[in-house]
Task: structure prediction
Amino acid sequence: MGRMTDRALSFDSVAAQYAAARPGYPPVLFDTVETLAGRSLAGARVVDVGAGTGIATRLLRERGAHVTAVEPGPGMAAQLRRDLPDVPLVRGTGDALPLADGTADLITYAQSWHWTDPTRSLPEALRVLRPGGALVLWWNVADPDVPWIAAQDARLRSVAGDGAHGGHGPRAATPDRPADAGFTRRRVHWTREVSLDTHLGNLGSHSIFRVLGAEATAAFLAAERAELLSVFPDGTVEEAYAVELAVTRRGPAPE
Result:
């Protein structure tokens, strides 16, 4: 877990780039969250863990939720505070939430559950949730059925041994024994059009490039620009995502 923690904290070096280039989430995702959680986000007490620069935090607030952000990285937390100065922010991780028992209606992990140890983070979430509350996990996973995305993923794996398209989702959407936690899964498809610069900024903000190093990253992104201009000659990239969503609810208090 030490190696995983180091890789997770590597985002601090690209916090501004992360905030500017990473995709958000479609409204239908939050509609689905409300359906599976059995309650509206409006007025809900939500803890957004691994909040990063606050991409999901902002959207949850726009749905009327009262959000507390939890983020371990100093650089990411500083960016969140600049962008969302009135959001309560605590430093910590999902493996040891610095929060009292039974204080949250929902606990959300947007792109961040795979950085935790589920044998610790799942009990912690259930401790902090109120009876009937929900633990909600999701990932933007680039759609591998789109040919140019599949080709880009193959190039990434050839140089870094890993993808950079949110591929943790299907593998890490639940703990090792998902039936024990009663997760319900959904998949939500959506797209966004961005400039080639924004797409490459998004790509370069992923943790595999912090491991790969600055020189190799610059070389890969320069080659990728040429590859993508052959697919999108006008410089506008249509990114296609399938949001992998997993929700489990804490049982009611015993009578």
